[in-house]
TrEMBL record:
The UniProt record lists the keyword Plastid: yes
GO biological process: chloroplast organization; embryo development ending in seed dormancy
Domain POTRA, first and last residues per copy: 6-88
Signal peptide (from-to): none
Name of the protein described by the UniProt record: POTRA domain-containing protein
Organism in which the protein naturally occurs: Stephania japonica
Lineage of source species: Eukaryota, Viridiplantae, Streptophyta, Embryophyta, Tracheophyta
Length: 424
């Protein structure tokens, strides 16, 4: 009998101990595993399809090892499939450090410490619970996120994510520092729910509803409503603003032998459920295209957005910095109601895991800086547009590429930039 061409009679799951390899009791519900498989009872067994099923199960993030063993089902001419599964440790605590690009001065500039607890297989249904706390020189974030990657009973692979977050981030991107080197921070309490699903192999979509309460504070934690230049810090004139946002996002991704493409379209609408809640429309789009020609890789990116309606100044689009226009400090080009940023870079192998990079960026607020309430960019004499160029290196790491860059801008200034992961 050709097992690879036989009809599937039955699929059995066997959990194996991580250390001994002996059969054990698993934590994952069998139906959670079985619904991931494209191989079903009554179908002709395909080795290629089986390998893809193994990759899918490993991609869930809760399996350490998966193998499919086909066995003849007696004299029926069919095949039974034995699915050997080794589960990963479900959860635990972690601690670490990183870098925040929002802080540009100080002896501990940008350093962030973190502490987190995560459980990747809640109730044995592959549901994810993450609780994390990050603390930097000025900024801090406490976040709880609960995600169901595939809602039970849904045949469209819809996921659900519930989030609660309390954050304090530097307001320097738009408003700069207060006198005597004290720091202005923007505090946000955010809660929301989002639903996502794939529409095709390359397209996916997300919709959700998000509540946010935000306001500015000085370094002592006192609420403030105006900055040093008397620009307003809230849209309502109160110590804080409240908004209920309806979100809609579409994502296109494509990967080929010669490069990759990405397109993200995002729209947020403020819903004035209560008279004092803000109402504005914010649209944002970004695209990226990669090409490989011989040993060289070319990457081109373009992003832009616009806000219409009554919005707080700290929500303006900030231009300049490591993930925007390099050669400038964070937000130093400008902050506007509209913006566009374009970038092009060429990378090439140097030695080992290190690549060299040449790059150029350009960004503009499209003349919209004065339309931001209080014109915080104009008060700080930000140019509103600018470009930068330079060289750098990329080093592969488990966290993603480590980026060290040295950039010049059109105002004859130069600056080092360090980042982790791909540019936004």
């Amino acid at each position: 009998m050709q097992v690879s061409e036989a009809e599937v009679n039955n699929i059995t799951i066997r959990f194996l101990d991580r250390k001994t390899g002996e059969p054990t009791t698993g934590k994952t519900r069998p139906e959670t595993i079985l619904r991931q498989l494209t191989t079903k009872k009554g179908q002709v067994y395909s080795l290629l399809q089986g390998r893809r099923d193994v990759e899918t199960l490993l991609a869930m993030g809760i399996m350490e090892d998966v193998s499919i063993i086909p066995q003849p089902a007696g004299d029926t001419g069919k095949v039974d499939l034995l699915l050997n599964v080794v589960e990963r440790v479900s959860g635990g605590f972690s601690a670490g450090g990183g870098i925040s690009s929002g802080i540009t001065s100080g002896p501990l500039s940008g350093l962030v410490g973190s502490f987190a607890y995560s459980h990747r297989n809640v109730f044995g249904r592959n549901q994810k619970l993450n609780m994390s706390w990050e603390r930097g020189q000025v900024d801090s974030i406490f976040r709880i996120n609960y995600t169901d990657p595939w809602i039970e009973g849904d045949d469209k692979r819809t996921s659900r994510s519930i989030m609660v977050q309390n954050s304090r981030t530097p307001g320097t991107l738009v408003h700069g520092n207060l006198p005597q080197n004290s720091n202005l921070t923007v505090g946000r309490v955010t809660a929301g729910i989002e639903f996502s699903r794939p529409y095709s192999p390359k397209w996916s979509g997300t919709t959700g509803i998000i509540y946010q309460r935000a306001g500015a504070r000085d370094e002592r934690g006192n609420p403030i409503i105006k900055d040093f230049f008397s620009s307003p810090l809230t849209a309502s004139g109160n110590a804080h603003d409240e908004v209920l946002l309806a979100k809609l996002e579409a994502v296109y991704t494509d990967s080929g032998d010669s490069g990759s493409s990405m397109l993200v379209l995002n729209v947020e609408q403020g819903l004035p459920v209560l008279p004092e809640w803000l109402s504005f429309t914010r649209g944002n789009a970004r695209t990226r295209k990669g090409l490989e020609i011989g040993p060289f890789r070319f990457l081109f990116s373009l992003s832009g957005g616009h806000v219409r309606g009554n919005f707080p100044p700290h929500e303006a689009f900030a231009i300049g910095g490591t993930n925007s226009v390099r050669g400038y400090e964070e937000g130093a080009v400008g902050s506007g109601r509209s913006y566009v940023v374009g970038s092009g870079e060429t990378s090439f192998p140097m030695f080992g895991a290190i690549d060299g990079v040449l790059f150029a960026d350009y960004g503009s607020d499209l003349g919209s800086g004065p339309t931001v309430p209080g014109d915080p960019a104009g008060a700080r004499l930000k140019p509103g547009s600018g470009y930068g160029y330079g060289v750098g290196i990329r080093v592969d790491s488990p966290l993603g590429p480590l980026r060290l860059e040295y950039a010049f801008n059109d105002r004859q200034a130069r600056r080092f930039h360090f980042g982790v992961g791909h540019r936004n």
